[in-house]
Amino acid sequence: MLAMQRVSSPPLFFLLLLICAGWERTSFAVEPFEELPPAKAAAGDWPWWRGPTFDGVAPRTHAKPPTIWNDESNVLWKTAVPGRGHSTPTIIGNRIFLQTCDEQAKQQSVVAFDRKTGETTWKLDLHAGHLDEKTNKKNTHASSTIASDGERMFTVFLFKGELFATALDFAGKQLWQTKVGDFTSHWGYCQSPSIYKSFVLISGDHKGGGYIAALHRKTGEIIWKTQRPKWPNYTSPVVFNVAGKEQLLLAGCELFASYNPMTGAQLWETKGTTQECVGTAVISDGLVFASGGWPDNITTAFRADTGEIAWKNKVKIYVPSLLTYQSHVYAVTDSGVAYCWDAKTGEEKWSGRLKGGYSASPILYGDLVYIPSESGVTTIFRASPKELEIVAENKLGDEAFTSPVIVNGQVFLRVAKQENGKRQEYLYCIGQ
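Below the sequence we write its predicted structure tokens.
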């Protein structure tokens, strides 16, 4: 059953505040809601896109992840994944969750696996009988990564030209489902939900008229919804405490925008990106970093207090997200060139070519960057401004578009192999 979107008319004084704040893009806000305890990542969990700190940095643990592996070495288990998808593993306690899609049966589903063995524990079909036809060859009908607040899981699927968010419990029972809004597909949907306080944050940029919305984690009610430009875009929302305040950051549609995550009110907006971006924003040294790849090639640093452009270059990083570490920005382009820039000035410290093309986003553990190529080779290089130092190259499968997950000394990779003329996805657990 779909949750009803109860939208109450804001009181007069609230409307006046919105007008004074220049909040003309906000569609609506509802009356007061039940505040929930903030969601925190438990030790050993990977609860949402880009990990516990939302920035691709894996927590350091006593057990270190391996740097060398193959099908015969350091593989603790592998398990077949039904269907196709690019969502990265979400790990909560003893369970791993993935979105997937059976393209022949036209079913969009969530699958749960046992963390210790890889055994499938349950599968829930959420949408069936239709797939929105227009999707990029590098996208799928299950590319959004599941987010969890420790009590529930939140999924987002595009179905019949509409964007649906669904909450599940860990046994696979549906708790609520809400239509977030209409969605006119250009190359499909791949944005992942983010969690902030009582909310699930969902971006729906599309060429019919975009939006970003906050849904209540417990009820699925849309608390606020802010309009965005009418352009296709693919970036996931993220909230960072930067420049003295919490900011919801979103790149794309030829601009970079910062919003108040509690209300959806715009804090600042600056032209300085291209139309279509995919990577999620990161921060360092009071700056916010974004990249994009169509129709222009641009990587930009914005001052987090004002939105003023601090520096920019013409490097095309379309799909992979950026990483920041010790006042430096690390990047891998879709075509396989790695870069290191000084975060404050944009000065290039080095660049060098890796093997293959890339759609996954890099993950940092310690001072090592892990990133799989589209052909299944995971390159590990050192995050150092001195030089590009490649530590290892490990191949699993024939295709990899999803980002790795690193927790408790283990690396989780979703890859595909060609077996007997058919494509089969696998989830690997790699460890010492």
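The longest strand covers residues 410-419.
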